[in-house]
Amino acid sequence: MTIKPEVPGGFRDYLPAKMIQRQKMLDIIRQVYESFGFSPLETPAVEKTEVLVGGESNTKRIFNVNPSQVEDGEGRQKMSLRFDLTVPLARVVAANLSDLPKPFRRYQCAKVWRGERPAAGRYREFMQFDADIVGANSMLADAEIIWLM
User: Fold this and answer.
1) How would CATH label the architecture of 20-148?
2) pLDDT category of residue 73 using cuts at 50, 70 and 90
3) DSSP state at residue 89
4) What is the three-class DSSP state of 19?
5) What's the mean pLDDT when you consider all of the chain?
6) How far apart are CA 32 and CA 47, in angstroms?
7) Which residue ranges make up each domain of the chain?
8) How many helices and strands (H and E) does the chain possess?
9) How confident is the model over 136-149, as pLDDT tens digits?
10) Assuming Cys at both sites, which of 38, 40, 77, 93 could form a disulfide with 33, CB separation 3.0 to 4.6 Å?
């Protein structure tokens, strides 16, 4: 049997020429975010499924990780690939509220995954860019996000 070396639908490879362009773009985005006083945040690609879906029945098309392979101190956990960067941010803020500066200015550039059927111009794996100000008392934070963009 011959296996075709094809990337799955909704995914793509980036060869070196494209990766060099992407890296330059990411460097510029990071420089801009940091020039506005935002700090980098990195969260795991995998989250507990119950955190991602908010404890509700799963209506989102997400990629689940095989729970028989995921063990922690409490036993097996249902886990899934993150579908955006907002849910992990909310988890980080809830878990570290007293340790974070107020307001908390963070940015994150990372891959996310969606289990939906790929269509023209839509992928199952893609890069998302987030910048957020958490805990600001003024609407000036919204204006600052617009200025950042």
Assistant:
1) 2-Layer Sandwich (3.30)
2) low
3) H
4) helix
5) 90
6) 28
7) 20-148
8) 4, 8
9) 999 999 999 999 99
10) 38
